[in-house]
Amino acid sequence: MTKNVLATGLIWLMAALVSGVFVWLLSDILIHGLPQLSWAFLAEAPENSGRSGGIGPIIVSTLLILLVAMVTAAPLGLATAVLLSEFTRYDSIFGRLVRRSLDVLAGVPSIVFGLFGNAFFCIYLGLGFSILSGGLTLACMVLPILIRTAEEGLQAAPNDYRLAAAALGMPRSAALVHLLLPSAAPALLAGLMLGVGRAMAETAALIFTSGYVDRLPNSLLDSGRALSVHIYDLSMNVAGGDANAYSSALVLILLLFIINTIAMSLAKQWLYRRVVSI
Amino acid sequence: MNEIEPVDKTRMNESYTLGPLQAGPPCCDPEPLIRVDNLTLHYRKKPALENVSLDIYKGCITALIGPSGCGKTSFLSVLNRMTDMIPDCRVSGKVHFNGKDLRDPALNVQGLRRDIGMIFQKPVPFPLSIRRNIELPLREHGISKQAELNDITQLVLQDVGLWDEVKGRLESSALALSGGQQQRLCIARALALKPKVLLMDEPCSALDPISSGVVEDLIQRLRGKYTVVIVTHNLAQARRIANYAGFFWIKDQRAGCLIEFGQCKQIFEAPVHELTAAYVSGSRG
Ligand SMILES: Nc1ncnc2c1ncn2[C@@H]1O[C@H](COP(=O)(O)OP(=O)(O)OP(=O)(O)O)[C@@H](O)[C@H]1O
Ligand SMILES: [Mg+2]
After folding, report:
1. Domains in chain B, number
2. What value of ipTM does the predicted structure carry?
3. B172, A168: Cβ pair inside 8 Å?
């Protein structure tokens, strides 16, 4: 009896602690970040190393880097996941090797990806410090997450669908497109959002690849400063930049939130249409 | 029960609509559609079926009975090459369908599975609308005119007695149907492809007695137009609907084999083998 009360109390305490940390973090950012937040802040270019002015070009760079990363990583990740889950046996040497490598890659510190990206994309491929280099480096970084979540989603799709589709003489590709991928869609989306989150939060890998330049990029081959790099710079290197660092952090969180919401609602609509329409 | 009359050949070419419920088997002069000769099947090194030989007769209902694990499902999966999907499954022996070698590696398996449909124990409706459930495989087989698809959908749903129940909600999810309705939808989906043979693996065992009865009546009405091979644990059901019956048994705790095959009436009323006699009388298995 007392044991139960104790356990319940402990669980509540843990829950309170975890949510408490989250609330504290969020309110800290809100309190310090909200005052400077305005449309002008979102639109203007940074001045005086970011102490004043806004973060317009930085938002643009961030979104471009994210776009490059996701546009490369998502199809590649999905294709690899399909190959692993549908076209190789789970216990084959190839499958085991790829899975093991991915798990190792997922745990590699991002600074290592930064160094690799710098050496490979910036120097070897000659892309220099650019949004393209940064985006491609991030793509390498989120690829393991995307592949593993997508693969697990596909594995979790009912095997009955594969059998029933085959028994109706449907090719495997049709079962994949019409039955397996849709039923794995929530997992695919969750993986994608995890990847977006990781990419948006990335600083170390971008410092070496997309660089520091806080001007509006003219092309993907221009250097561009990501929000996370901006926050890092303002809080570590720029005296008096704390206020704007907070506002930038707030914008980063809002961006993540908006992307998540849009993705969720799109997915919901799509799933709904799939059942209802022809 | 076994009043025998010849298969009505003209009805074989008719389109989808099934005839009324026919009591008793319409086939005499049995014409084998599938011939299985000395079939042996291994999973990895372990044999699951050994030396099975039997003929499946055109237009008849063949029931396969026997205890759990004696390889009935494995036998069915040989007939539509579902065994291809199981790694480490090895099949040997001769299987002919319509005179063609069914185990030919060059055979068009998708075409074969269109000719030989399969119904599973647990209904597997796709998570799509009722209409899309039937249209999806048809589209994959190259039927894409909407008018034609609509006609086929209506006909097969009428055939399985589902049309009146669902005609108002064809666009809603098939997952919302009851178990029995789902199973009939799966049968309709298979019939839409105009198969020659339907393999049914315990199609009623996940259903309540009423739905089970409805599906059983439906299977009865397939007789003559389709060749049905049904696995069932319900001996009374096998006795009610089958023209032919095959009894499988696990020999020496090792592999399944066919003990006896013959007319349903004979298997149930005058079994030759004593194992069969014990099994159908309920004293064993
Ligand atoms: N995919 C598989 N891999 C390995 N062994 C299998 C596989 N499928 C079936 N077996 C084995 O083959 C034997 C026959 O199985 P099968 O499913 O054909 O029996 P069954 O007669 O259909 O049984 P039940 O009446 O329970 O459905 C069993 O011993 C089973 O363990
Ligand atoms: Mg079985």
Report:
1. 1
2. 0.86
3. no
